Amino acid sequence: MIAKTTDLTRVYRLGASTILGVNKVNLEVEEATLVSIVGPSGSGKTTLLNLIGLCDHPTSGKVFFMEKDTSRLNDTERRNLRLQNIGFVFQTFNLLPTLTALENVELPMALAKKSQAAQREEAARLLKAVGLAKRLQHRPRELSVGEMQRVAIARALANHPSLILADEPTGELDSKTGFEVINLLSELRRKEKTTVIVATHDERVARVADKTYRILDGSITQE
Length: 223
Hints:
By secondary structure, the protein is α/β, with parallel strands linked by helices. It has helices spanning 45-52, 75-85, 101-111, 116-129, 145-156, 175-191, 203-208, and strands at 3-14, 17-29, 34-38, 60-65, 68-69, 86-89, 163-167, 195-200, 211-216, 219-222.
């Protein structure tokens, strides 16, 4: 089991208003699987990924990651666990515009204090794995949106994470490119032996996933 939540709840308070982000969510994610969390905008998908990815703290309930009760970890321990074991892919790519594709992929390895030579070698390997061997020195503005998402996926794999969390990875892409990214995530899950959780409104992800959850108004059901 790579990740598990028990009665996971996140409540936001905005002035006098209360917003229920996720509501008593229970899910289990096995190693080396592709899991889709499908729901419309505002359903709680991003909130759930942020909780699983240790970017946010639950109001109640627990997140277990690699059998560790993360509620027992301090902020430094959470950060280190996240840096070494979790990769993130965002809808808007979040690439640094002044860096090349190679340098963007190197960045998480630099934060993990890997040697410059190891960073360069691994970043080149990952970009080749996502089909960008000839685009290493290109900056984001010189890449298509599909290529930018491929760079983002390579960056997410940089520290050989146990888990990749992808938040609407096809949201900015046209239908054809989105389908290619879905297939790429599925293929890399097998080749890199990494678990992938995709939060999406794209029904095509559910068709290739090993397990699919539906989320609406913060509550989740399994198909």
